[in-house]
Predict the structure.
Amino acid sequence: MITSSSNGRIKYIMTLMQKSKFRKKEGRFIIEGTRIFEEAPIADIEEVYVNEASFDSFSKEVKDKLKKVRYELVTESVFKKISDTVTPQGILCVMKINSSDISNLIKDDKALVIILENIQDPGNLGTIVRTSEGAGVTGIIMSEDCVDLYNPKVIRSTMGSIFRQKICFVSDVKEALAECKKKDIHSYACALDKKAKEYTEFDFIKKSAIVIGNEGNGLKDETIKACDDTCFIPMCGEVESLNASMAAGIMMYEALRQRKISAKK
C-alpha cells in the first residue's frame, strides 16, 4: 500500500493530472471515477490506484473488473492528493493515449465529421465529444490549439465517449478541409457572413463535415473561405449566439434527423 504523497508514482500522477505538455510527452492521461473505469478499455489501462477506504463500497461490476487488472491500494489521504474531484469515488487510472489518423477518420462512406477550431472551454469540448457519439458522428478533427482533450474536466464531460469516438489532431484546419474534399466530404462552416444560409436549408445526408469555431471569436476567415458552404442557426429575442457545444449539438442532430428520414424512404 502507498502511504505517502512523496511516493514517485504519486508525484508522476499529480504531474499528469496538472500538466498538458507532460501528458503529451508521456502519451498518457488520467481518468477518475467508478463509471468511467467501467467503460475504459482494459487494453489501454496502464496503472490503477484504489483508495483502500472506498473498496468495499464499489459495485460488483467494478470489483470484477479490478480482478482483471493490477492495482495499487493507497491511503485515503494520499488519494485525496491525487484526486481532481471534490468528492472522490476512490478509483483512478493512468491511461494510454490513442488518437486516429485523419485518413482513417474520413474514409467512412457515410462520413459525418465534426471539425473543431480553437475550442477553449473544457466543458464545451467534453460535451461535443459526448454529443457526437449520440448523434452518430463518425469522427472528430481537432486543431492543435484546442483545449487539451485529456484535461480532467474534458474527460469527465465526455462521460466515457472519449473511448468510443475516433478523434485526430491537426496543425492546419485548411489542410484537413482539403483532405475532406478529396473524399467528397462537403464542409459547412458555422458562422455569420453575407453568404450564410439557415442550417436547415442544407443537405447533410451526403458525406458532411460540420466546422465549429472558438467560443468568443468563431472561425477564422481563412477557415470559412476554405469551407464549401456557410450556415447559421437563427436566433430569437436579443440572443446573438449559442455556445459552441449547443451549436454543435443542433447541427449534429439536424444531420441525424435528415439521415434517419432518408433511411426510411
